[in-house]
């Protein structure tokens, strides 16, 4: 007969934890979901900010930087397209989003992966 098989678990395996990735609709950069802020079209048709990321409805993600928010709010139809809105964003919802955008700082001078003081190409 064959000798019995001995099962030995592998030595300490460290599995990398899955980190969900999302794309900012303002600058189109991919970041970890927790680094971005979610904007939601609720089932009632309102557009609201969802800081928890768990609210029901169609969502889109933006950096917590003023430039990304201004890009989306000034670009005609960008937020409407991302949230599949059938009508333009209501004035009340737009004003709420503009107030939220005003609370964020300007874009950080250096993000992960960007080179600081990079020489200009000629």
Strand order of the largest sheet: 4-3-5
Beta strand % = 15-25%
Main sheet overview: 3 strands, antiparallel
Q: Helicity, in percent?
A: 10-25%
Distance between the termini: 76 Å
Q: How do the SSEs run, as a string of H and E?
A: EEEEEHHH
Shape call: elongated
Mean pLDDT comes to 86
Question: What is Rg?
Answer: 22 Å
How many helix segments? 3
Report on this model:
The chain has helices at 66-74, 78-82, 91-102; strands spanning 21-23, 30-32, 36-41, 47-50, 58-63. α1 (66-74) packs antiparallel against α3 (91-102). It is α+β, with helices and mostly antiparallel strands. It is elongated and about 80 Å long. It has three helices and five strands, in the order βββββααα. The protein has a domain at 21-102: Hypothetical Cytosolic Protein, Chain: A, CATH 3.30.1230.10. The strands form two sheets. The protein has a three-stranded antiparallel beta sheet, with helices on one face. A two-stranded antiparallel sheet has the order 1-2.
Short description:
With 122 residues, the chain is α+β, with helices and mostly antiparallel strands. It is built from three helices and five strands, in the order βββββααα. The chain has helices at 66-74, 78-82, 91-102; strands at residues 21-23, 30-32, 36-41, 47-50, 58-63.
